[in-house]
Design goal:
This is UPF0276 protein GCM10007972_15460. By secondary structure, this protein is an alpha/beta fold. The chain is 43% helix and 19% strand. The strands form three sheets. It has an eight-stranded parallel β-barrel. Strands 5-6 form a two-stranded antiparallel ribbon. Strands 10-11 form a two-stranded antiparallel ribbon. Strand 5 and strand 6 form a beta hairpin. The model has no long low-confidence stretch (mean pLDDT 93).
Length: 283
């Protein structure tokens, strides 16, 4: 399903999905919302899964922590993976746990060899526990550490090589970080291992003013803007069609608006694929 699109499944849209059976390739959920013994949420997810593939996009493993991944978290995640057989399981290049203290945010990692070693150990542990390869998503960040041993694409490339994991390429996050930190987003795309990308995320962001600077914030609370769409086209040109998710977690619009964005992503992939085919024939 490389050229299929999906939407993040929200309670507010359950009826649209179950009754409308929209023409989509998949739905994505945060597994932490369904690590339960039962209840209506799991029942609804079963109904959705009977009609669509699922992607499980985790936010609670804290793979970047120096501490090992919480074993209870992995046990409950494994039960959910076994039950719903998602086509993708993903997590973040971030940390949110220190010993027994949990933070309600996805915090950035220093791009150091020590952080890479910790991330590698936890990705390997998670993949072994689940019995499958996971994808790791590039983060959105607002500050840079004073020291780094490598760039973020170099970090991700080394992580893929060390663990065999794949990548979840968040195009909005690349744009947000490029604008916040002043690097070239096209250069970022050129530096990542494109063959490792198993899914793409598209989302909206906000622009906040701090003194004389504009800071882009990854809110998932607005439509995808033109700059992100243009960067998505550049990503597809480089790595080819990939399952693409429309993320919206705040200021939820009518489901039809998200479906329109999903169809726009499908159109981008189809148009670029057709262009590539025409060029190949002409050559």
């Amino acid at each position: 399903m490389p050229d299929k699109t999906g939407i993040g499944l929200k309670v507010e849209h359950y009826r649209d999905v179950l009754e409308g059976r929209p023409d989509l390739g998949f739905f994505e959920v945060h597994p932490e919302n369904y690590m339960l013994g039962g209840g209506p949420g799991l029942t609804t997810l079963e109904a959705v899964r009977s009609n669509y593939p699922l992607s499980l996009h985790g936010v609670g493993a804290s793979l970047g922590s120096y501490d090992p991944v919480d074993p209870d978290h992995l046990t409950r995640l494994k039960a959910l993976v076994d039950r719903f057989e998602p086509f993708v399981v993903s997590e973040h290049l971030s940390w949110s746990r220190y010993q027994d203290h949990f933070l309600a945010d996805l915090l950035p990692l220093p791009l150091t060899t020590a952080a890479l070693a910790a991330m590698t150990a936890n990705v390997n542990h998670m993949q072994e526990a689940l019995g499958r390869t996971i994808l790791v998503e590039n983060p959105s960040t607002y500050l840079e550490f004073s020291h780094a041993d490598m760039t973020e694409p170099e970090f991700l490339r080394a992580l893929v090589k060390a663990t065999g994991c794949g990548l979840l390429l968040d195009v909005n996050n690349i744009h947000v970080c490029a604008m916040n930190h002043g690097f070239d987003p096209i250069g970022y795309l050129d530096a990542i291992p494109g063959d490792a990308v198993g899914e793409i995320h598209l989302a909206g962001h906000s622009i906040d003013r701090y003194g004389e600077r504009d800071i882009r914030i990854d809110t998932h609370g607005a439509p995808i803007n033109d700059d992100v769409w243009a960067l998505y086209e550049q990503a597809i040109i480089r790595i080819g069609p990939k399952p693409t998710l429309i993320e919206r977690d705040d200021n939820l619009p009518p489901f039809a608006d998200l479906l329109a964005e999903a169809k726009q992503a499908e159109h981008v992939m189809a148009s670029l694929a057709q262009g590539a085919n025409n060029a190949s024939v002409a050559g």
